[in-house]
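Q: My labmate handed me this sequence with no annotations at all. I'd like to see what the chain might look like in three dimensions before we decide whether it's worth expressing. Could you predict it?
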Amino acid sequence: MGVMKRFEQRLEGLVNGTFAKVFKSEVQPVEIAGALQRECDNNATIWNRERTVVPNDFIVELSAPDYERLSPYSGQLGDELSGLVRDYAKQQRYTFMGPIKVHLEKAEDLDTGLYRVRSRTLASSSSQQGAPGQPSFQNPPGPASPPGRPAPGRHQAPGGYGYPPTAAPPMPPGPPPGGGHGGSGHDRRPPAPSPQPHAQTRRWIEINGTRHQISRPTLVLGRSTDADVRIDDPGVSRRHCEIRTGTPSTIQDLGSTNGIVVDGQHTTRATLRDGSRIVVGSTTIVYRQAEG
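A: Here is what I predict for the chain of 292 residues:
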C-alpha cells in the first residue's frame, strides 16, 4: 500500500464529530501532504553514497479562513503529516538531521484555497555529535513562487530542461603554416560551414480532441481554475499532476486522490514518450512531441 493511501486511511479514522469540519476548508490535507513530499524531493542533499538528507522542519502557510478552520486540529494534523513525511523518507531512503515537525501558520497575503510550504533542516544535538565537524544548516530561501505552488527545485539533473552543453564546440582549423600554396598568405580552403541551430522539440497534449501546447518548463493539470490546463472531471483533483519538460519529459503526481495511470501502469512518476497515454479520473490525455 502506498504512503499517500495509508495517510488517507489514517485521516478517515480521525474524521468524526467536530473534526469533520476540517475538511470543509478549500485546502485539503491530502494536497498539503503531496506538497511536503515534493518539498523533500526538491531539497534533498546528497552527503555521501549512503546518506541523502532532506528537511525535517516544515511550515505550511495558509490563508486566514483556512487557518481558522485547521488550527484547532493542528496538533493531530501535524502528527499525521509528520508521519507521512517519515514514511515517504523511508520509502525513498532519505535521512533527517533531527526530529520531524510540521507547523501551520497564517499568511495574510493568501486567498482561501491557496497555500505555501517552507522547509529547513535543523540538526539535533545528537546528530551534531554523531557527525563531528558537520555544522547544522538551513535551506536558503528559494525564488518567490505563486501561492499554492511549491517553489521550484534548486537542483537540476544533467540533460534536463535548459541544461548547458557538456563541452564547447571545436574551433575551426586555422591556416596552414607558411600562408598556404604559393606563399600568398591567404587560406584558399573553402570557409567552414556555419553551425546550424538545433531543432527545437515541440510538445503538446491532446484531451478529448483539443490540443494544448506545452510552452513552459512545467504544466499543471487539474480541476482547479488555477491549473494550467483545467480538466472538468469529478475524479480529478484540484492540482492533480504536473508535466515537466526535459530530456526526457516526465509526469509527476501532485498528491492527487485517485492518482495517475501512464501507459497502463498506476504510478506517481513516469517518463513520457511521444504517444504516451495518461489517465486521470475518467479522462485520457495523450502526450505528443516532435522535432522542428
